[in-house]
Design a protein that fits this description.
The protein is α/β, with parallel strands linked by helices. The chain contains ten helices and seven strands. About 35% of the residues lie in helices and about 15% in strands.
C-alpha cells in the first residue's frame, strides 16, 4: 500500500517484451522451470505485484503479429497491453506514460526475471525525494538494477528528434540530464558478478535450477544464501556476453579488450592494442 507523498502518484512499471529475440526466440513466454512453471513474463509481473509503491503494470510490446501471444497473455492476466513501433521503443514508453497519465515510470525488460521489490521501492522513494528526472540503480548483479523516469521527463522529449540509437534504447537521452541521479547499492561479493538475465539457453538452465531451490520470492538475500550453499549454480551461465550500450567508443574498445583477455586471446589483444596506439583515440595514445 502506498502512503505519504507517493500515495497520490501514479507509478507505472512498464515491461518491454517481444517474441522476436534473435538469440533466444519466444523466451518471454517460456515456462521456467519447464514444462509447468510460470512463464518468464508471468514471473516478472508476479514480482512487480509485490511492490508497495507500484500502482500500475503495463506490458509494452510491438505491433508485429508475432507478438499476438503477448497480448493474449495480458488479456488472460488482466494486465493492460500497449502495442507500438517495433524499433522505436522510446515512443512506446512515451505513449504508455501519456495514455496512463503516469507520474513515474519504471522501465522493466522482459528478460530479467528477478526483481527485489524492497530495493525497487527504495529506489522509487529516492527518485521522488530528490525530484529526479531519471534515476538508475547501480551495484546489483547484471539483470537486477532499476531505471526510473518521471512522466514529466517523457513529456519534455520530442521523440521524432531522437537518433535511432536513442529510439532503441529508452533511457539514453535521459542519462546526461542535470537531474539524473545514481542510487547505489552494496552487493555481497559472492554474487556481485553473477548473471541474472536471459539471453541464451544456458541462462534458462541456470534459472530453472535457481527457482527449483528458491520456492518463494528471490531477493538479494536469498541469492546470497544460494551462492553460499550451491555456488556452482551461477557458474552455468558465467562468461556469457552481455549486450550493452556504451557511453563512448573508448568504453566499447575497453570492453572488447576485456573479452579477448577473458577468452585467453592474448596475441589478438596485443595486436589490437598496437593498432589502437596508431589510432586517433586520445585515451590510447
Amino acid at each position: 500500500m502506498v502512503d505519504g507523498p507517493l500515495s497520490k502518484l501514479k507509478i507505472g512499471a512498464v515491461v518491454q517484451a517481444r517474441m522476436g529475440s534473435t538469440r533466444l526466440p519466444d523466451k518471454v513466454m517460456m515456462p521456467i522451470p519447464g514444462p509447468d512453471g510460470p512463464t518468464l513474463l508471468g514471473r516478472i509481473c508476479a514480482q512487480l505485484n509485490r511492490s508497495e509503491r507500484i500502482t500500475d503494470i503495463i506490458i509494452a510490446t510491438t505491433s508485429n503479429p508475432i507478438d499476438d501471444k503477448i497480448e493474449e497473455f495480458t488479456t488472460q492476466s488482466g494486465i493492460p497491453c500497449f502495442r507500438g513501433d517495433e524499433n522505436n521503443v522510446f515512443e512506446r514508453y512515451q505513449k504508455v506514460s501519456q495514455l496512463h497519465d503516469l507520474d513515474i515510470v519504471i522501465r522493466v525488460t522482459g528478460d530479467n526475471p528477478i526483481i527485489d521489490t524492497s530495493l525497487l521501492d527504495e529506489t522509487i522513494r529516492a527518485h521522488q525525494d530528490q525530484n529526479n528526472h531519471y534515476t538508475r540503480s547501480t551495484g546489483l548483479p547484471i539483470g537486477m538494477n532499476f531505471e526510473i523516469i518521471s512522466g514529466e521527463a517523457f513529456k519534455s522529449i520530442n521523440a521524432e528528434a531522437l537518433t535511432q540509437e536513442e529510439q532503441e534504447h529508452v533511457t539514453l537521452c535521459f542519462k546526461n540530464h542535470p537531474r539524473a541521479r545514481v542510487h547505489e547499492f552494496q552487493t555481497p561479493s559472492l554474487i556481485k558478478n553473477i548473471r541474472l538475465t536471459i539471453d541464451y539457453p544456458a541462462d534458462i538452465a541456470m534459472f530453472s535450477l535457481l527457482f527449483a531451490f528458491c520456492k518463494k520470492t528471490v531477493s538479494l538475500k536469498t541469492l546470497n544464501q544460494v551462492a553460499v550453499a550451491h555456488p556452482w549454480i551461477f557458474k552455468i551461465n558465467q562468461g556469457l556476453y552481455q549486450k550493452r550500450t556504451f557511453k563512448n567508443t573508448e568504453e566499447e574498445i575497453d570492453c572488447a579488450l576485456q573479452i579477448l583477455a577473458h577468452f585467453g586471446m592474448k596475441q589478438s589483444a596485443d595486436i589490437f592494442i598496437q593498432l589502437l596506439q596508431k589510432s586517433p583515440y586520445k585515451s590510447f595514445e
